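#lab-general

N.A. 3:47 PM
ok so I finally got the sequence cleaned up, no stray characters, all 453 residues accounted for. can someone with queue access submit it? mine expired

B.Y. 3:52 PM
send it over

N.A. 3:53 PM
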Amino acid sequence: MATPDSTQVLTSKNQLLDAFASGCKPREDWRIGTEHEKIGFCLDTLKPIPYEGARSIRHTLEMLASEDWNLEREAGQPIALKRGMASVTLEPGGQLELSGAPLVSVHETCQEVREHLRLLAQVRNDLRIGFLGLGFQPKWKRENIPWMPKGRYDVMRRYMPQVGAHGLDMMLRTATVQVNLDFESEADMARKMRIGYCLQPVVTALFAASPFVEGKPSGYLSYRARCWLDTDASRTGIPAMIFDDNFGFAHYMEWLLDAPMYFVIRDDHYIDCAGQSFRDFLQGKLAALPGQFPTMDDWELHATTVYPEVRLKGFLEMRGADAGGKPWICALPALWKGLLYDETSIQRAWDMVADWTHEEVVSIRNMAPEMALKTPFRDATLLQLAETMLDIAGSGLERINCLSPDGKNETLHLAPLMDAVAHRRTQADQWLDAYAHGWNGDIDMIFTEAALP
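B.Y. 4:20 PM
back already:
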């Protein structure tokens, strides 16, 4: 199906459905996209990197632009880089995010990550700044984090405190890795989405890597995931409609229409319409733009302002993992590819979760940030579920048998997950043990231990 015209004026729900249906792709065209965020710091002071100055986020973007990336600006300020279908963007607190290109193999993803980290190593040497691979800023308070100069963040900064206690923490102090996956049909999308939602708490547990807040243990293994539990219930979490037997594009569209808007863009300016209704916009009744109707661009922008555990656009975004180092970045696409891109694996994964209820999945999502792999589920724990997930994913990757130049299949990228399950210890567990025994309570050591190469 052709991609809808982004400037098309929308007056019908059928046009909104077309935006989702246009994402359907034949199996041979399926790709994997990986996005990963990093928390920056100054090597000498460990303080967050400011936007302006000699050692700054702005200077970092300008340096990276010289490496074949095109610099993009907003109101004259550098705020992103673009190269082909890949981009480097800024999260609100200066977290640097690589949104990778859609690639065939996890081997290619790892090469993309290596190249990105190589460029950051040059920046580190020249500007004396580094980046952390973990899920939450381990030392500095919210008021110590500089805001990036993007119009959308101004709107969200005003609105977030009205709908949750941790929305600003999510914006300023968290970092994640996510994977984007394709689907063949509406039915394929629905099956993958249901599996994704059910298994996302297990992923949160496996990838838990944010135990510290403001210099000390927080009581959580993934404080990043804890923040998402109290950010904005109307646009986050696990919507109940995912568990409807006839779930499809229309269900997600209706949920998205009910999610309050943040903004629209007109003449390169953000117009604040936080809390207003896209349903009203579709009828020309948006209070911020009375008498105007939305375009496909407006709908696609609105689709980026909801943050459920699995997000639907023209592809599926598997969210829910703390950021980590290169092996962990590569592990996430390997896990989901092995689960959902092989027919035998996806059937096994479906059989695993088919009788899980919405209430059960919400319950383990609520517990996983604190208990991680020890989270109870029925007569087992998330550790046992993780073992089953990895068995399914590994078998799937073996059947797909996508080989690296040296003849290895993609199962090698599951190594950090296999190790975590074998030792029953997440990255967070390891760091907490080191904090108590090897670091003597010195949180500054995490800036060495979690630093990206």
